TrEMBL record:
Signal peptide: none annotated. This is Uroporphyrinogen decarboxylase. GO terms for molecular function: uroporphyrinogen decarboxylase activity. Pathway: Porphyrin-containing compound metabolism; protoporphyrin-IX biosynthesis; coproporphyrinogen-III from 5-aminolevulinate: step 4/4. Belongs to the uroporphyrinogen decarboxylase family. The keyword Lyase applies. HAMAP family: URO_D. It is an enzyme of class 4 (lyase). One of its GO terms (cellular component) is cytosol. One of its GO terms (biological process) is protoporphyrinogen IX biosynthetic process. It catalyses: uroporphyrinogen I + 4 H(+) = coproporphyrinogen I + 4 CO2; uroporphyrinogen III + 4 H(+) = coproporphyrinogen III + 4 CO2.
Length: 365
């Protein structure tokens, strides 16, 4: 079976991120940034110039290069494969375009329950998303063991919201109306997305991903009741099924869940088979520790806009954040992705501050 054949990857030199994810002791707090590959980097803008976004996603060489770019500049403890969450709806048969200035756009979104018939009934994930698996394998080689490589997916609810809204939205009233008008069809769609996502994540691990993050970026547009009905069961199902399958071959790959703005869901998320719960910036670190009861590692959650502050201020903000979370079972990150107008120098200051303050705090203990 070619899929599971050993690929002779270079040996990992920095396992701090994986140790923190598994709840093992670390000398310093590991750090990476969501959207660390992005338009705030001049080399990213130059490389992407004139190329279609999803063409770039389909080129393993391009994805590898864009994944490596931030690692050449910053002392990050992890990397995340360059791709997008919307490759999954594409694999299910939907068309998605990246419209410059507008973001991802579905020319023909799902409008009625009958539109589910437009989706492929059987999705051959190995074939449809082979280009992502190739990108991961290539990047694992080219990264030379510097840091671990994270694979990722969008979560079912977030993907469903794009498939029905057709793009980002202020109110999400179209997709939310499905939950209230067609709850059963909504569950059918979420279940089908879940099945594809499980195969997709397992394929990413087989290709070389050393950790997995599940992005439920639109969790916060639901209240706690709808979250429990339409997000949580699928998030749990994904982690349980992926973990169970990996266990059969003696593998254990840390899994991270990022349910943005789902503050009411922290306790449930900490009991959902994930190793790490990633937090947006609206959550108090100490409260998050209380609600997750030390059962999981935490990741996050500096306000991305704090990167607009002067360097000395960034250092202070990081110190306060570390005091809140503590230096163990913790992965420093932003509370959401970077913005294109951010200064790369500020990212360097953020990374340095995490490493410096956490080393000092560990010595004092
Ligand atoms: O042309 C460009 O470069 C466009 C910007 C861009 C980038 C750099 C998009 C369009 N996607 C990406 C890459 C990407 N997307 C990564 C790669 C690696 C990294 O983080 O360094 C990841 C993990 C994603 C995941 C993603 N895509 C999410 C989940 C995370 C989040 O931000 O909440 C979402 C919601 C998307 C959809 C998407 N893709 C791109 C944009 C601008 C958006 C958001 C649109 C919206 O607001 O609805």
């Amino acid at each position: 079976n070619e899929k599971n054949a050993p690929k002779d990857f270079p040996q990992l030199k920095n396992d701090t991120f994986l140790r923190a994810a598994r709840g093992e002791q670390t000398q310093h707090v590991p750090v990476w940034c969501m959207r660390q590959a992005g338009r705030y980097l001049p080399e990213f803008r130059e490389f992407r110039a004139g190329k279609d976004f999803f063409d770039t996603c389909r080129s393993p060489e391009a994805c590898c290069e864009l994944t490596l770019q931030p690692l050449r500049r910053f002392d990050f403890d992890a990397s995340i494969i360059f791709s997008d969450i919307l490759v999954v709806p594409q694999a299910m048969g939907m068309e998605v375009q990246m419209v410059p200035g507008k973001g991802p756009t579905f020319p023909d979104p799902l409008k009625d329950p009958e539109d589910l018939q437009r989706l492929k009934t059987k999705v051959d994930v190995q074939k449809e998303l082979d280009y992502v698996f190739k990108a991961i394998t290539l990047t694992r080689h080219k990264i030379e063991g510097k840091v671990p490589l994270i694979g990722f997916t969008g979560a079912p609810w977030t993907l469903m919201s794009y498939m029905i809204e057709g793009s980002g939205s202020k109110t999400f009233s179209k997709v939310k109306s499905w939950l209230y008008r067609y709850p059963e069809v909504s569950h059918m769609l979420l279940k089908r997305l879940t099945d594809v996502i499980v195969d997709y994540l397992l394929g990413q691990v087989a290709a070389g991903a050393q950790a997995l993050q599940v992005f439920e970026s639109h969790a916060g547009i639901l209240g706690p009741v709808e979250f429990k009905a339409f997000c949580l069961p699928y998030l749990r199902d994904i982690a349980r099924r992926v973990k169970d399958q990996l266990k059969e071959t003696g593998q254990d790959v840390p899994m991270i869940v990022f349910a943005k703005d789902a503050h009411y869901g922290l306790e449930d998320l900490s009991q959902s088979y994930y190793d790490v719960v990633s937090l947006d910036w609206t959550i108090d670190p100490r409260l998050a520790r209380e609600q997750t009861g030390g059962k999981v590692s935490l990741q996050g959650n500096m306000d991305p806009c704090a990167l607009y502050a002067p360097k000395e201020r960034i250092s202070e903000i990081v110190k306060t954040m570390l005091e809140g979370f503590g230096t163990q079972r913790y992965i420093a990150n932003l509370g959401h992705g970077m913005y294109p107008d951010m200064d790369p120098e500020s990212v360097a200051a953020f990374v340095e501050a995490v490493h410096k303050h956490s080393r000092q705090m560990n010595k004092q203990q």
